Amino acid sequence: MGMGKSAIFDIYKKNMRNFAGFLAFLFLANLGFMVLDGERVSAVFVPTLSASVDKTEASLNGRSMLLYANGLSESRFNFKVTRNLKSGYVATLSTETDETALMNETAGGSTKISSIVNAKKLNDFTENSWGYKVVGDDKYDSIPGVSTPKTLITTSSYGWSDDAKEIQVGIKIGNNLDSGKYSNKLIFSVVSNSYEPRAIMAKGRDFNDKLASLDSNQQHYGSYRYKDFVHHIKRSESAPEESVQTKDISADDSDYPILAWYKPAENTVYFYSTEQKIFLNKDCSYMFTRFKNLTNIDFVKELDMTQVVDMSGMFYDMASIESLDLSFFDTKNVTNMSDMFSNSKKLSSINFGDFKTSNVADMSRMFYGLSKVTNLDITMFDTSNVANMSGMFSGMRGLANLDVSNFNTSNVTNMNSMFSDMNISSLSLNNFDTSKVTDMMSMFNGMSKLNNLDISRFNTSNVNDMSQMFSGVSKLSSLNLSHFDTSKVTNMRYMFGYMNSLVNLNITSFDTSNVKDMSSMFSYCYKITDLDLTYFNTSKAKDMASMFSGMWELTNLNISSFDTSNVVGMSFMFSGAKKITGLNLSHFDTSKVTNMNGMFENMESLTELNISSFNTENVEYMSSMFKGLKSLQNLDLSHFRTEEVTRMDSMFNGSNKIANLDLSSFNTEKVTYMSEMFRDMTNLVNLNISSFDTRNVTSMSRMFSYLSKLATLDLSNFNTSKVTDMSNMFSNMNSLINLNISSFDTNNVTNMREMFYYVNKLTSLDLSHFNTTKVTGSGMIAMFSGMNEIKSLNVTSFDTSKITNMYNMFFGTYSLTELDLSSFDTSSAQSVSNMFQIYGSDIDKDKLERIYVNNDFNVSKITEYSSIFGGRKKLRGGNGSFLADPSTADLSWLRVDRPGVQGYFTRKP
Predict the structure, then answer these.
(1) Structure confidence at residue 221 (pLDDT)
(2) How far apart are CA 814 and CA 812, in angstroms?
(3) What are phi and psi of 251, to 5 degrees?
């Protein structure tokens, strides 16, 4: 279908007695319509096409042109096309004939206004010439004749819109123009492209959803429909019976419907169209995704694939498909193959045949997770236009070899995770052109069997991300990157992390001036012994967390040139560098650091640590900072500012050579966690924490556990009002003889398990001020177990109504002569096994004779009660009752001993 519109341009010129010059007029006539049949009307779709001009008349004063405007004039009008077409159209401009001049129609007239020949600006027109332009263009163009029309608008695909152009006509006339009428016609032609009606399949995702809806009995997961019922998809030669429920799986712009229906007895979906040829949609993305039981797609052979441009995710996550024959695929127009086969875990064989990939721009994750594929022949691939190869072969663990020698990567910008988690041992990429690549993140990450890698020709001049690039390449022993240009790299996080076999690393050419993230850069490079980074420029670095963590064999580390003025994160920076003996960080600027968690953790050989320059005023986290420093004897932290620190848990845990620790300068007002803070400091004899403000601390679990040489601990300044966990707080303090916890507020404590476990030198403990109403469940297991020397223990304030397990609570307390449990409530107790037991040589040391209670224990819920009183041979009930073997006592002995009722308890007077 098409149409044309004409414009008649007339100029009149004659002598006028009233004027010294000439008078001229320009006239734009009304436009007419003509319709040309170019697009057939289909069964479903009715095409439309129309055109209009907004201006039907124009005039100019020739005398004014000559006298005041150098004979120049311009006129504009809008040309608009309204269309609803599938095939597009072409709109052109020309004169009615090949005569392009404005001709003098007056009898005997010999002059004319000619079209300009070359594009030019109006001021450059010769006299008596005219031209046109599309508004916005810089210059006017020549008037086209009918044989050489000029295209104004062209479209080639479906459109439902208005297209408009603003046309401007320019004229220049001179004094030598003869009198007369000058005219010509401009023809606007609009013709639609030819079109053949088609049956077109729905878009990939729509096809997927529509087939999933064919079985109403299928389960839903939110909006997602399971498709387990589809085992086969076949084309039917005949239409379904009227009684069959169908779904139209054609595209919105299809000219004919395509009906689909499900036959449960066959687990088969059938489809039918009146048209012999069915076209696959240009968008086939995720067409068969998650068809769990579909094992072949042979029906596609009967469909026309010539229009397909998007095959992304087409076979994504097909759980049962084992082989794909794609030799019949027409992929010459495809631009997107991302995720095409991704995650189809049983797929082991793909026949590509004569696959055309010359137009593909995206191959990201194309074969991601295909762990069963053992052979992949992609030698026919043309990758000259591919820009994205991220994750392309990631997770292909079944491949032993990969030949990409034919790959043209000159346009690739993204190689993120391209070969990650593959099991190949050798990879040659010396043909790769990486000059445009910006992202190499995780490119070889997790290639745990790779021992030979040729990247000698890599051009990395545009790369900005190398994070995790070689991380987990655990068999590679040598890596020469001396040719790498890293001047644009901003991220080197985990770049060499977990390269467990790496011995030789050449990165002397590295320009790190733009790197912001160096966290875990060399972490767990076990075998590197020497690392000289004096050439590193770290002025922009913000994160150095775990940078050298786990470098077990590292003995020499030169970071004397490090500029840390912008670093915020230093957590675990040197953690696990077990063989470094000395570390001089006196040049470190830590003024912006907020996290020092685990910074020197487990540096077991460290004997000298110079951190005298450390500014810690902004640090919030110091958990495990000095944990496991087994060789360090002295640590001066008098200059530390800790007013912003919220976590100090395990801060000095396991630093067992330090004998004296003065933390009197510490401000701990904001600290919430102190669990295991001094745990396992087995040589500590002097600890000054007199300035500690613990008002916000919630956990003190194992805080002083295994301080086996500390004899005195004064915590009278402690505010424990917010503490909920005191489990093992003092456990195994084997030398402790003086403990002041008189200020303890236990109103919020829920766990006191093993709180005083094996504090075996302490002789007296008054806990009458303890409030245990919130302690629940197993929160008192072995609380006083192993307190061998305790002679006086006051627990008369204890509320045990919520305790379910009293296992080993007073185990081994052989120095006690009596025990007052008059406040104990065992109504929730389920286990009292070994509650008072002693054994072995302790039996001969036992002094316990009386246990006082107010009433019999409530045993209604107790199910575990083995050896409750085991070894307590001196213990007697209030009426003198006892057993020759106390370990045989059952629940009936958890009573007040009285006439007629035997028990091991004595009623409190």
Answers:
(1) 57
(2) 5
(3) -75, 160
Residue 224 makes CB contacts below 8 A (sequence gap 6+) with none
Long-range contacts of 528-531 (CB under 8 A, 24+ apart): 528/502, 528/503, 528/553, 528/554, 529/553, 529/554, 529/555, 529/556, 530/554, 530/555, 530/556, 531/505, 531/556, 531/557, 531/558
Q: How far apart are CA 400 and CA 309, in angstroms?
A: 32
Confidence check: pLDDT of 216 > 80: no
Contacts of 673 by beta carbon, 8 Å cutoff, 6+ apart: 623, 646, 647, 648, 649, 697, 698, 699
Question: Which structure tokens are listed for 373?
Answer: 């594929």
pLDDT in tens, 524-539: 999 999 999 999 999 9
**pLDDT of 368-409, one tens digit each?**
999 999 999 999 999 999 999 999 999 999 999 999 999 999
Task: Say which residue, 746 or 184, is predicted with more confidence.
Answer: 746
**For residue 611, what are the contacts with CB-CB under 8 A and spacing of at least 6?**
585, 586, 588
Q: Kindly give, in sequence order, each residue whose CB lies less than 8 Å from that of residue 222, ignoring residues fewer than 6 positions away.
A: none
**Digit-coded pLDDT (tens) for 631-672:** 999 999 999 999 999 999 999 999 999 999 999 999 999 999
Q: Is 497 exposed, middle or buried (0-12, 13-18, 19+ CB in 10 A)?
A: buried
pLDDT averaged over the chain?
A: 91
| 8 A C-beta contact, residue 54 and residue 31 | no
Interior angle at CA 607, CA 604 and CA 611, nearest 5: 105
Q: Which residues of 508-518 are buried (b: 16+ CB within 10 A; e: fewer)?
A: eebebebbbbb
